[in-house]
Amino acid sequence: MNTDYEVLIVGGGPAGLAAGLYSARARRRTLLLERGIHGGQIATAGPVENYPGFPDGIEGPELAERMLQQAIKFGMEIEYAPVSGIKLEGGLKVLSTDYGEYPAPAVILAGGSDYIKLGVPGEAELTGKGVSYCATCDGAFFKDQEVAVVGGGNSALDEGLFLTKFVSRLTVIHRRDQLRAEKILQERAFAHPKVRFIWDTAAEEVLGRDQVTGLRLRNLKTGLRSDLPCQGLFVYIGHRPNTVYLKDLVELDEQGFIITDAVMGTGVAGLYAAGDIRHDSARQLATAAGDGVTAAIEAEHYLTELAARQGGLTPKALAPGR
Ligand code: NAP
């Protein structure tokens, strides 16, 4: 067990990378643990147009790489390991991963959230055979094909508009007759010749044996069912955080998002949450980065106070019996 770190960060999306940058610049020994690809949702996003400072936009993966390199430049370390548990031991928070335990006095939870699945018949069986949750990863497989998107938020329209580069026609299926997505995306989608909308409708089943051949739809106002032929389905119906392992430690809302105070505190001293993982997050790249910065500043205050209280004890000395 490596007891050298002062700040551990769970999750390498914009919140975690911004936290890492600030903690490293505060000269705290900082380790970020990432379960997959650093960058979070922008790692698989297309052009990012709404992050301040990039008037012509920037590709999501490039921005993610720049954020990582900036944090590493100032001393942040990164390891690729999924965190599956956390416990309090003395003054330390101890994170468990498949590769061992990582203790530190301050931890910033920035694990983001995963795409929610529709949960209808055929979805799981046909994932990777026409059903996808990542337009950037899979869009090119659908060249000149008919593709459906389920959802009415920013993800559905952002990713749907990206898909229009490849597909012959894109059908957006939404359960209401009003979109949740920001207006500029709505304007682009409504104006796009390849995009059409089916309103007040739910996808009840994904059709096909070895490959998606269509969707069974139900109009939620009339109850009428119909089949939509298509070769691809992209699902964008929101996100759910990966916080099951935190439920006995911090307060979660009904959907599992972490309740924080205004400075990202979770109620456990030295434990912070930042970005999409927390309740009431605006779920924007810029706000996630801002959350990460706030959490890192608070962690720094906590470590400074702790050192003063403990007479300058090191993280190692905080661990009982170590
Ligand atoms: P979201 O904003 O929560 O929208 C989810 C959409 O899916 C809503 O339209 C919702 O319908 C619909 N939906 C939810 N459950 C459903 C179900 N069981 N069946 C069918 N439809 C269902 O999620 P998101 O679009 O993934 O965005 C998440 C966050 O990331 C948002 O805060 C968003 O602003 C942000 N984001 C921003 C950008 C950007 O700035 N360009 C890009 C992507 C994401 P209702 O409207 O009826 O609830």
**Mean of residue pLDDT values:** 94
User: What order do the helices and strands follow?
Assistant: EHEEEHEEEEEEEHEHEHEEEEEEEHH
Total count of strands? 20
Number of domains: 2
Widest beta sheet: strand line-up: 5-2-1-9-20
Per CATH, the superfamily of the largest domain is FAD/NAD(P)-binding domain
Low-confidence stretches: none
Q: What is the overall number of helices?
A: 7
Structural class call reads alpha/beta
Cα separation of the termini: 10 Å
Keyword list:
single chain, about 325 residues, alpha/beta, FAD/NAD(P)-binding domain, 2 domains, five-stranded parallel sheet, about 25% strand, elongated, binds NADP nicotinamide-adenine-dinucleotide phosphate
Describe the model.
The structure is a single chain. With 322 residues, the protein is of the alpha/beta class. The chain folds into 2 domains: 7-115 and 239-318, FAD/NAD(P)-binding domain (3-Layer(bba) Sandwich), CATH 3.50.50.60; 131-235, FAD/NAD(P)-binding domain. The chain has helices spanning 14-25, 60-73, 135-138, 154-163, 183-191, 285-309, 315-318, and strands at 7-10, 30-34, 47-48, 58-59, 77-80, 83-89, 92-97, 100-104, 106-109, 113-115, 131-132, 146-150, 169-173, 195-198, 201-207, 214-219, 225-229, 232-235, 239-241, 271-273. Strands 5-2-1-9-20 form a 5-stranded parallel beta sheet, with helices on one face. A 5-stranded parallel beta sheet has the order 11-18-12-13-14. The chain has a 3-stranded antiparallel beta sheet with strand order 6-7-8. A hairpin with a 6-residue loop joins β15 and β16 (214-219). The N and C termini lie close together (10 Å). Bound molecules: NADP nicotinamide-adenine-dinucleotide phosphate (NAP).
